[in-house]
Design brief:
about 775 residues; alpha/beta; 8-stranded parallel sheet; 28 helices; 27 strands
């Protein structure tokens, strides 16, 4: 293993694992520094930090950067980063930092000097080139969508005032261009002289003239393809590497960039070739461009593999019937077409119209471009790479909309040209439509088994065989051995433990149907698909505080957009929805049905969680552990998955485990911390034992219930579909053949002889075993 020298122990140049921390004003870099001893004891190899550049005041995530020249004081500042880096490096841990090159936070203009400069000076601003503005579309002004509705014949602009040399709209502070407010003009008149135009917030969907992150008006995209913008936005990032504070970078949303490959090349050069990972969502058989200067993705592709090998396909028809959803590829594709087209016509209408302005000669350009974006099968192409996806999109678009054939024909050659501005901007836009149309809309409507609707997942692929799982991991080992793997992140819709329990519903689909009918009868509301999402969320996260579940279901309902929306909430429907949530706690019948459903899958959920974590920590790739998930974590979508973590509890449990305690598999979750710590330590202490990938089969009546593989010096044997296994009488005579010689189960410390082993004995205590040679035997074998 290549290592990096410095003060303290050597650390790996490429991590064998990471541990993700979410930094906030309440958990600062200094707090992370104080946690390093625990992370080192847990077995983590690198500390993985959420964004740390100065963000909007009060930001809970850090993706709304307002200043690229300093570490966020709210998150601990430069001194905090130094403290964290010194503590980590002294303990032999590396430091990986999340970065945000695509956009900046502009919700509070006075906090963002670049944006303030743009608003004040317009096209002549020093930082005008930093932002992607279509000045012609705004008649020389940038539209800022912050105004409320006009009321009683009174314009919202009547609420403007001038204070301290600034234009004010309630809490919004805006600059005034020099010489435009020196004549006692009214605030409205002064506004009309500015380089910006304040418009009603509803106009953003169709009339905005600056590129955003997805449909978030307060995140303005920046042009890092411009060398001056790159340099200005990487001043502090470069310092981290110049000063030896950081060891690697995670790049957020590279698909928004004009040329991700060129950006990664430049970034790699600036940080001295340090490792880079990209938050890239791969669809189906899509490959990450091999030419990119990256070690791989942040792991959502691996998450889907682990989940799906734990799903029972026999239960899926019943689950589909419950949700009135047809579980077929065609049905999913039709839903995705509906939701993506709705996004292209709706909240991303401004982006589509901007594309159309580049081709004024093409008839029906807005409609045709929206249809091609809707049909695009992956997030984006990187021309000339990925032109086959454009061909597929054009074919699909023409099949669905033959009346637009003339427009498609006119657009096609320009969209295929890697030097055409239309193609460049189209590639930046297609990922927006995919993300908002699929992850943030269709995922909330396709609710037969909600664990399948996870970031990076394809819900039409409901399950995979053990053989397919092995095929994908062998490919990962051969092509992207240092790509990250994950089960939970700050962006997942449900934590790994919630999904593990929901997966188990596929094994008891008939029983679940009875409970779901009881819940509907006693506590239903008029949205059949959303009902399934709500009931499954409650089952997966139970016990969950009432307030958390209320917040989740309201967000989910508005994202789905069928019965209520963010921009036009249906008060009557939402009242019924919240009443249903209350009923889960207050109605005796509804609560009994919910608790019965939880009882059916709770133990199987624990099994799935332990199995999933053991597989993830031993499969090919660099495993990431999300903060706090070493114990049971029953989190739902953000902000629920960014709650504070009780590290005192985790330290106490780890200390007890290190005294030799082998905990039961129960509600306390100590067994998961056992799995996590033992396998993280194994990877860190013996990385050479994870150099291969070989499937291992089982023999006997329950052979289909085993996922087993060798990494060269480590063998993982895991249970799948445990409820079905128990229903059919357990392992019986099923065996697995292990490497010959003396072995030790890393989880229990029990030694055994390799060869043919009965699974009933091997998995007697825990549903997974991870075997390697004892250190003395491994050393002897190495010498031989």
């Amino acid at each position: 293993m290549t290592t990096v020298s410095g003060r303290g122990p050597q650390r790996s140049a490429v991590p064998v694992s990471t541990y993700r921390l979410q930094l906030t004003a309440d958990f600062r870099l200094q707090d992370a520094a104080a946690l390093v001893d625990y992370l080192q004891a847990l077995g983590a190899d690198w500390v993985y930090l959420s964004p740390i550049l100065r963000a909007e005041p009060g930001s809970t995530h850090g993706y709304d950067v307002v200043d690229h020249t300093e570490v966020d004081p709210e998150r601990g500042g430069a001194d905090g980063l130094t403290a964290l880096a010194e503590a980590a490096h002294a303990a032999g841990l590396g430091v990986l930092i999340d970065t945000v090159p695509n956009h900046m936070g502009v919700a509070t203009p006075v906090e963002n000097a670049w944006w303030w400069d743009l608003l004040q000076h317009g096209r002549d601003a020093e930082h005008a080139a930093a932002f992607d503005v279509d000045w012609e579309a705004g008649d020389g002004r940038i539209r800022v969508p912050i105004l409320g509705d006009d009321e009683d014949g009174r314009s919202a602009l009547d609420d403007l005032s001038i204070e301290d040399g600034e234009l004010r709209y309630f809490d919004h502070r805006l600059p005034i261009a020099p010489g435009t407010a020196d004549d006692d003009a009214s605030p409205g008149e002064v506004h009309d002289r500015q380089h910006y135009e304040l418009v009603n917030w509803r106009r953003a969907d169709s009339e905005l003239n600056y590129r955003r992150f997805f449909a978030v008006n307060t995140l303005a995209a920046i042009r890092v393809e411009d060398s001056a913008v790159f340099d200005g936005s990487h001043v502090e990032i470069g310092r981290w590497f110049d000063d030896g504070l950081a060891d690697g970078i995670r790049v957020d949303h590279p698909d928004g960039l004009l040329d991700p490959g060129a950006y990664l090349d430049r970034l790699s050069e600036r940080i001295g070739g340090a490792p880079i990972w990209v938050e890239k969502i791969l669809e189906g058989e899509e490959d990450l461009p091999a030419e990119w200067a990256t070690l791989g993705t942040t792991g959502y592709d691996a998450l889907g593999d682990v989940d799906r090998v734990l799903v029972d396909p026999d239960g899926l028809p019943t689950l589909g019937q419950l949700a009135a959803i047809e579980l077929t590829r065609d049905a999913w594709d039709d839903l995705v077409h509906t939701t993506k087209r709705g996004i292209a016509d709706g909240i991303l209408g401004s982006e589509v119209r901007r594309l159309a302005r580049l081709v004024p000669e093409v008839p029906d350009a807005v409609d045709a471009l929206a249809e091609i974006l809707t049909a695009f099968p992956v997030y984006r192409s990187y021309l000339p790479l990925g032109d086959e996806y454009l061909d597929a999109a054009l074919d699909e678009a023409e099949t669905r909309r033959p009346e637009l054939a003339e427009a498609f024909a006119a657009l096609a050659p320009r969209l295929r040209s890697s030097t055409d501005p239309l193609a460049a901007r189209f590639q930046q836009t297609s990922g927006m439509v995919m993300a908002k149309g699929v992850e943030d809309t269709a995922f909330y409507r396709y609710t037969a088994l909600t664990s399948l609707t996870e970031v990076g997942g394809d819900p039409a692929e409901t399950d995979i065989s053990v053989a397919e799982f092995h095929h994908r991991q062998a490919r990962r080992q051969a092509e992207w051995p240092s790509s990250m793997t994950t089960l939970s992140t700050h962006d997942t819709k449900r934590s790994e433990d919630v999904r593990a329990r929901i997966d188990a519903l596929s094994e008891v689909a008939d029983r679940w149907a009875e409970h779901a009918v009881a819940l509907h009868t006693s506590n239903g509301f008029p949205d059949r698909q959303l009902e399934q999402l709500v009931w499954q969320a409650a089952v997966g996260a139970w016990p969950i505080e009432r307030e958390r579940l209320h917040a989740y279901v309201e967000k989910a309902a508005r994202e789905a957009g069928d019965s209520t929306t963010w921009t036009a909430p249906d008060e009557t429907f939402e009242a019924a929805l919240h009443a249903a949530v209350d009923g889960l706690y207050d109605s005796r019948r509804a609560n009994a049905a919910l608790l019965d459903a939880v009882a059916d899958v709770e133990a199987a959920g624990w099994t799935n969680s332990l199995v999933a974590k053991a597989i993830q920590l031993t499969m090919p790739g660099v495993p990431d552990v999300y903060q706090g998930s070493e114990l049971w974590d029953r989190s739902l979508v953000d902000p629920d998955n960014r709650r504070p973590v009780d590290y005192a509890e985790r330290r106490a449990v780890l200390a007890r485990l290190d005294e030799g305690w082998l905990p039961p598999v129960d509600a306390d979750g100590a067994a998961k911390l056992l799995v996590t710590s033992r396998l993280l330590r194994l990877r860190r202490e013996h990385p050479s034992r994870f150099a291969e990938y070989t499937p291992i089969g089982a023999d006997g009546p329950a052979a289909d219930h085993v996922v087993a593989f060798s990494r060269g010096g480590v063998t993982t044997v895991a249970t799948r579909l445990s409820l079905r296994l128990a229903e059919h009488g357990g392992w019986k005579s099923t065996t697995v053949t292990l490497p010959e010689g003396r072995l030790v189960d890393v989880l229990t410390g029990r030694e055994l002889q390799g060869g043919e082993v009965r699974l009933a004995a091997l998995l007697e205590q825990y549903p997974v075993a991870v075997l390697t040679r004892p250190d003395d035997a491994a050393e002897a074998a190495s010498e031989e």
